Every structure is written in C-alpha cells, then in structure tokens.
Amino acid sequence: MDFGWSKLVPLLVLLASLLFLHIKSPPKLHHSECSLLPYHHYWITSKRIITPQGVISGAVEVREGNIASVVKEEDWLGNVRRGQVVDFGEAVIMPGLIDVHAHLDDPGRAEWEGFPSGTKAAAAGGITTLIDMPLNCFPSTVSKEALKLKIAAAEDKIHVDVGFWGGLVPENAFNASALEDLLDAGVLGLKSFMCPSGINDFPMTNASHIKEGLAALARYKRPLLVHAEIQLESENYLELRYGSDEARLYSSYLTTRPPSWEEAAIRELLTVTSDTRPGGPAEGAHLHIVHLADASSSLDLIKGAKIHGDSITVETCPHYLAFSAEEIQDGDTRFKCAPPIRDIANREKLWEALLEGHIDLLSSDHSPTVPELKLFDDGDFLRAWGGISSLQFVLPVTWSYGRKYGVTLEHLVSWWSERPAKLAGQELKGAIAIGKHADVVVWDPDVEFDLAADHLVYHKHPSISAYIGKRLSGKVLATFVRGNLVYEEGKHAPAACGVPILAR
Ligand SMILES: *[C@@H]1O[C@H](CO)[C@@H](O)[C@H](O)[C@H]1NC(C)=O
Ligand SMILES: *[C@@H]1O[C@H](CO)[C@@H](O)[C@H](O)[C@H]1NC(C)=O
Ligand SMILES: [Zn+2]
C-alpha cells in the first residue's frame, strides 16, 4: 500500500492547530465528548412527536441546545429543510422526563448510588432532568455550605441536568436568615418530613416548622415538599421485633404504617396550607405532598384543600401503581418503601385519581442503598432499608402498567414532564416547543423486554430493584439533554455534561 507522507501534512497541521486551540482555551470540553452526535444544528424527525398542540408527524429543529422550531411534515418537506437530519421513523419523540424526587446520595453515601451511576441510569431511562433530594447524602442539604458540597460533587459527574431540593429541619426552620441563605444559594425549594426520616442529620418537622418554611418560601415563590406520615400509636400497631417470624411477613410491615398515618399528617398540613391561598400570609408558596400511597381519606382531604384554593399538589410513584400488597412475597424486602405499597383496591383508586387529575404528577422516589442493608437472609421487613430502586425504568413501567387503564402518550408528558417542570420552576423545560431546552426522549412504546439485572441497568445496585424480572414494554432509543445526544442504545456520551440547575 502506498502511504504518501504528503497526505499526512494537512492532518498534522490540523492536529497541531487543535492542540494549540486546546491549550489556548483550556477547560471547555469539545462538543463531541458531550454528545454522541457531532452537530450543533440538526433536525430530529418522526411520525409521532408529542407537542402541547397534539401529536404530529414532522420535525424538531435543534440549534445550540434549544428547540428552534417544530414543524409538521408537509411544511418541513416543502421549504424549511436544511442541515443535518436524524430520522427516528415511527418512534415517539417526547420531552425528556423530569423526576422531581430522586435520592442520589452524593456526596457522603455515593456507595448507595452516586451522581455518575444515578444520572447514567436517568439518561438511559429517558430522564433529562432530576431533582435530588436533600437527604441520604451526607451532610444533608440543609445549609448553603452543604449545597456547595453537593454542587462540587456533581461537577463533571452528571449526565443529565440536576437540581437540588434543600432540607427544612427544626434547626433552620425558625432561622429566617439560614433559610434565605439556602434559598439564595439556589435550591429549587425545600423538603421536610413529618415522621422520622431514617437519617440522623435530617430530623422531622412539625406544623410550626412547616408554617415558617412556607412563609420563607413565599418570598421566593418556591415549593415545600413534604413526606406526609405521622407516627400514630393506633390500635392495630404491632410491636414487632427485629428478626421475629412476623417481621418477614409483608402484612406485618403494612400494619406498622397504616393509611391513618398519611391521613393524620395531611390533616395537620392542611391547617397551614390555607396560608398559601390568595391574600394569605404565605401567598406565593406552594405545598407538594410526595409519594401519596393512600387513595382514600388522604386523597379526599387534598381534593378538599384544592377546592378551597390552597396552593397544593400531590405526586405518587410508579411502584404504588404497578404493585399491590397481595403480590408481595413475604421476605421480599425489595418492595419495602414508606408509606407502603397497599392493596389492589387502593391501587385501582390511585389510577383513577391520577387519570382524573386529582393526583398531579409522578416521581420515581428512587431511594437505593447497598444490598447489605436491603436484602437479608431472614427477609426481615423491619430491618430492611425502605426505598425502591426504579430510576431507569419509570417510563416503561408507567406505560406498561398504565396501558390497561387507557394511559396515553399525552398523559405521560403531563405527569412526567409538564407538571414536574412547573413544580420545579423550570419554564424552559418540559415540552417540545420553540424556545425550550432540547431535552428529548425518543422511545418505542411497543418493544417488550424482560428486565434483567445484568442487562444495561446503570443503577449502582441493580439487584435490589423490585422491577427486576418483570416484563416491560417501552424501550428508550435515545436521550437528548440540551441538544446533546447523551444516550443511544446502550451507549452514553463519553463526558458527563449535565448542568447543575440553581434557582436565581
Ligand atoms: C441562624 O443562621 C445563621 C446563618 O446560618 C447563623 O449564623 C445563626 O447563628 C443562626 N441563628 C441562630 C439563632 O441559630
Ligand atoms: C414544633 O417544635 C418546636 C420545637 O422545635 C416547638 O417550639 C413547637 O411548639 C412545635 N409545634 C407544634 C405544633 O407542636
Ligand atoms: Zn424520597
């Protein structure tokens, strides 16, 4: 083979100039490391693009990370077509999912999950933004100093955009300047617990703390997220012992956290959420109840508060919609979470409430740990860590289990993108529309697969997920974050170019 040196000269010149440029402008990453696609301006096309105006066949123009236009096929073919085109055929193009409730445990407990693995899983699951919870990391995000540690831990390690909730705890609740420091530092809102959180440096709050929190948040127009369970010594509360035979029964675990705990907490919350009504002392603040499990009295209370004008929303999680107490095997602690997964009748009511709009949105509550704290030989539900690992699967799970209830692609966008964007104050995200960030998931709703722990699961501890072994429908083909193709068919972009989202 004739390998002429002359052919190498232009290459060497190019290499030298690249090197020179690199030295001149140091830390900026070359775009190709952030994206599996080497274009700044391109079109993605498909027959099924879910826009706020309905499903269209057409094209989305992406320019410098934003959506520059959205056009129907006939208009696009007719005149505007210019630049690179990536055709996804019949696949669905939707706004990327926004998970407002995930625990990535970084810094401090990164061995439980961590920013790199958690955000890789998110990208592979079509989640383009997630908001990290202020606890299970160490220290908990309850001060501006702790938030700085969080941001430092996230730097160059996140594959999707990540925002942060701060913690409302007794230590800062009555200290307006401490809360202002935390909010000024950029948390998107606050989170608190009405029962012990299971984490020592994240103590629970009562109604007085929550009232103070709402007053501070009103000035910033940001939400308070609350874990709504109050420990009651109800008559059916069993004194269970660790390691006892009863402790491996799922029915025992259920009796330790009855629906009355959720109801009591929400009843107490509603004594302060009236402050958020128009003209009230905390107008501008908003209260969001996380992971509702009880679809009976608790939900009725929330419906009533909405009618009265309280600024209040509620989420539930895929595991409450997918599973029921009846099917959980004794000793299978993968299914332990708090509040617990309740019975079939309750699950049916959750679906109904979601479809009727009484439940506003969905979140993963991805809350992993190490297998040694989650799975025990004796199957002890009391000792096991409470939390379900699901981050990567929420899209196919919602779709697979929702189809028989008539869930549509528009429902998915509303529950997983539009409303979460609103809750987190991200008006540039959550829709396929001009001017928004090009945060996009491309997926095929009809591809079925058996979820196996050893196959393309990016969670740090796949084996602890309750979904392993399930047959699901809906395969994520590609995920774009601000125009970067961060994931495609089992491959991630080499660099982690997600951005920490800080409120201003
Ligand atoms: C309130 O918080 C500020 C800032 O974090 C701190 O300097 C101050 O000591 C706190 N005040 C009280 C009374 O704890
Ligand atoms: C909440 O706890 C604080 C102490 O941190 C206490 O001063 C306050 O009275 C309590 N409020 C209620 C409603 O129990
Ligand atoms: Zn949680």
Describe the structure.
The protein is globular, with a radius of gyration of 24 Å. It has 16 helices and 19 strands. β12 (286-289), α11 and β13 (312-316) form a beta-alpha-beta unit. It has helices at 5-24, 31-34, 73-80, 115-124, 144-154, 170-173, 176-184, 207-220, 250-256, 259-273, 297-307, 318-322, 344-356, 371-374, 394-402, 409-423; strands at 41-51, 54-63, 66-72, 84-87, 92-95, 97-102, 127-132, 161-164, 166-167, 190-193, 223-227, 286-289, 312-316, 361-362, 440-450, 471-481, 484-488, 491-492, 500-501. The model is unreliable at 1-28 (pLDDT under 50). The longest helix is centred in the N-terminal third of the chain and has 20 residues, at 5-24. By secondary structure, the chain is α/β, with parallel strands linked by helices. The strands form 3 sheets. Strands 1, 2, 3, 4, 5, 15, 16, 17 and 18 form a 9-stranded mixed beta sheet that branches. Helices cover 32% and strands 21% of the residues. It binds 2-acetamido-2-deoxy-beta-D-glucopyranose (2 copies) and zinc ion. One 2-acetamido-2-deoxy-beta-D-glucopyranose is lined by residues 175, 177-178, 181.
